[in-house]
Amino acid sequence: MHDLLDDYAQSNALRDTNPRLKLALGLGAIIFCVSSVSPVAPLFVAVSMGLITVILAKIPARFYSKLLLIPVSFAVLSTVVVAFMHGTGTVLFSVDVFGFDLAVREDGANLALLLISRTIGGMCSLFFIALTTPMIEIFAVLKTLHIPDSVIELSMMIYRYIFVFLDQAAMIHSAQVMRLGDTGLKNSLNAFAMLSSVLFLRSWEQGERLIVAMDARCYSGRLDLTDQAAKAEPRAILAAAAYLAAVAAIAVLTRNIQML
Amino acid sequence: MTTILETQDLGYSYGDGTVALQGVNIRLEEGKKVALVGPNGAGKSTLMLMFNGILQPKSGSVLFRGQPLNYDATSLRSIRRAVGMVFQNSDDQLFAPTVYQDVAFGPSNLGYPAEKVKRYVTYALAYVGLSGYEPRPPHHLSGGEKKRVAIAGILAMEPEVMILDEPTSNLDPATSEEIMEMLEELNLGGKTLIISTHDVDLAYRWADEVILMKDGGVLRRGSGPEVFGDQELIREARLKLPIVVDLYHELAGRGLVDGPKPPRNILELCDTLEQGCKGRAPSHSAADSIRPGKICICNVDELKAPQIPSILERISPSYKGAMGTSAKVMAEEAGIALDFTYGVIDKCILKSLVGKSSLIMTSGGMVDHAANRIMDYCRESGAVIEVVRLSTGSELTCKRIP
Q1: For testing the chain B interface, which of A217, A227, A228 should be mutated: the one with the most B CBs within 10 Å?
Q2: Could you tell me which of A4, B99, B269, B322 has the fewest CB atoms within 10 Å of its CB?
Q3: CA B222 to chain centre
Q4: How do beta strands B161-165 and B192-197 pair?
């Protein structure tokens, strides 16, 4: 019924690699992406992370490109605005709209390019984490980083019940569609409002049942998190370190390069 | 028999004044299988929630091993450990993000060290036949698997009494029979079981004691035939007769069978019917001329999966059945297509009576249970069925059970 990130996180080819290493790789790449001043390093990260995700983790390329299309379309829309609104320098392109002179200048274009490459690089790194590491292993890593227990436990239960409510929302939606709740804008808005309110009430009730279920099993503030993850292989650590060093080097070496 | 759970004049009403229970007096004996039956809103779930102190009675009291429940934190912990509850909707119960964490929830909250928690979880998951499912998230499990995990989560706390609210609702027939058989296995291991159900056939066949409830009170308590023998009462409680009982009454109405009480199951019904026929019809029924088939019982604890095909070759049974989780797991490992996965003993007796041989794979205490059940049947019915217990050492030896 669903094609969820979580399904791939559970079954990809890098599933059993140490989660700390995967997190470090993804987060490191994100940091270099956002701190790089030229678009070269982020574009390198985007391409390499994409290849790692598709080839090494064996995520279907079709699914991956569809997934990437979502943030890319947002990024393109917003950077177009930035390109028109920002900067000085030579005019690269101008258009006359009802007497207003809208122009893309050199500065604006460079900034827009940088923004879009940072966004895509960052998203590719984030998708790498999301598609290769099950949430539960991320929680285990967070626990070893001394994030407060209550925060982790809450996140775990929120994570668990996302899927219960997802199913319920899908069922309510089907029930609405079956009785033609989606004909016309007015109807679908109304149906959506009902779906939201019912889902809210149900989550409230579910919360109450959750307390009973936990009490019935002697809850005293302990939710076990065993770190069952495999040890990181030295080879994998070296490869990840080499990759991050390469990204850093590219970022430093290309700091003066402007695309336009 | 010692009384394990008892209620005295129990009453409960919800916040809005709806009376859920009134004057409930019941006494449950240790090691019994009890079924609560009754229409929607009869108070079954409310009563169950009182057995382990989740709801506190408005009047009367609940006694565990003769001691009234106290509702302070320490007493509640000990009662909830001793009386475990499996909810109707598994999604309510499985709140942890992985199977391992969920089963480990009870033991770790009881303060066991990590190593002990792990041992208990491994044991409980093996018991329900889900070894290797530890890292899976619950939303990737089927309904039957979720139910098994929920049961494992309770088993890991080693309760004396297990309460299951509608354990077979939303499960397919084969899965629900397998769940019920697992409960039977737990009961043979000494656990007291209480279930609530709308499935009258299930309650009739499975339970030692049936408690019929309506409008927050108990209408009748007794064995299945006692409670379901009263057609008026069953109609009043908005239930229906178990199919076996219904059929028996109709046959009795036509004068085909007679007897003081309705049969417990299909096997007994067939026997009653056969006896009824013998008096009238000329005796050319197949069962008379046919020698009953042999039933072999093998203990899978003494075997390894690769040995099973050679055993099958040697005794070549017409039908193969497995009782209990470990036997089923082993049959799957050995790649054997099972004919019976539930109600195995009765099915094998029925097949034996028409001349077919069968093999029952089972383990532990259920080996004796199966042999005794068949022997009891032979004693009551006068049939002669050859029961062979297979023991494997270096070679296969056959022992006739006296």
Answers
A1: A217
A2: A4
A3: 17
A4: parallel
The number of residues making up chain B comes to 402
Residue at token pair 């909250």: B109
- What is the C-alpha R_g of chain A? 23
Could A226 and B104 be called an inter-chain contact, meaning their C-beta atoms sit closer than 8 Å? yes
Neighbouring residues of B127: CB distance < 8 A, sequence distance ≥ 6: B152, B155, B325
What is the model's pLDDT at position A10?
Answer: 81
CA distance, residue B76 to nearest chain A CA (Å): 8
Question: Which of these, B40, B64, B96, B374, lies nearest to B216 by C-alpha position?
Answer: B40
Task: From residue A143, give the alpha-carbon distance in Å to each of A149, A224, B7, B106, B265.
Answer: 7, 11, 45, 20, 55
Judged by a CB distance cut-off of 8 A, whether residue B97 touches chain A is yes
pTM, to two decimals = 0.80
What number is the ipTM of this complex?
Answer: 0.71
* Average pLDDT of chain B, as a whole number: 87
Give the pLDDT means over successive 10-residue stretches in chain B (402 positions): 91 88 93 93 91 91 93 89 92 86 88 90 93 88 94 93 93 90 90 94 92 92 89 89 90 82 85 72 51 86 83 87 88 88 89 89 86 86 82 46 48
Interchain CB distance below 8 Å, A220 and B109: yes
> What pLDDT shows up at residue B140?
85
Backbone phi, psi, residue B360, to 5°: -110, 120
Judging contacts by C-beta atoms under 8 Å, the chain B residues touching residue A161 are 95
Longest Cα–Cα distance of chain B, Å, equals 71
| pLDDT for the residue B281 | 45
